[in-house]
Amino acid sequence: MLEAFTALSQATRLETFRVLVRHEPEGLPAGEIARLMGVPHNTMSTHLGVLSRAGLVVSRRQSRSIIYRASLDHMRETLSFLVRDCCAGRPELCEPLLEELRPCCPPSEDPPA
Q1: Stretch(es) of the chain classified as CATH 1.10.10.10
Q2: pLDDT, tens digit, for every residue of 10-21?
Q3: Where is the signal peptide (predicted)?
Q4: 71 partner at 20 to 30 Å CA-CA among 6, 33, 48, 110?
């Protein structure tokens, strides 16, 4: 867990991770991430390496490009670690946090029949 926090403690890596989360599940090629972030390709490569070693991003080769994706499972584990036992037996203490997370993840609606 500490490696994930260390990786996200740097502003460019944190924003890179956030960009990748917004582009789930397709992911983005490394060059496109660098362009979106306004960061030189070699610098972005270093940042992506740190995020990858921390388990926060995964990559796959697609033709000549490497496509990066956020590891949502690792993000979920990290968030769970942060809030585990946050309520200390009093669920009402965590309710404000849960309410804040709901707008970013609206429930999927069933398609009309």
Answers
A1: 2-72
A2: 999 999 999 999
A3: none
A4: 110
Distance CA 104, CA 43 (A): 30
At residue 110 the predicted structure's pLDDT band, cuts being 50, 70 and 90, is low
pTM of the model: 0.80
Distances (CA, A) of 72 to 6, 27, 36, 61, 110: 18, 12, 21, 19, 23
The Cα-based distances of 86 to 42, 52, 61, 80, 109 in angstroms read 40, 28, 40, 10, 30
| SS3 (DSSP) at 106 | coil
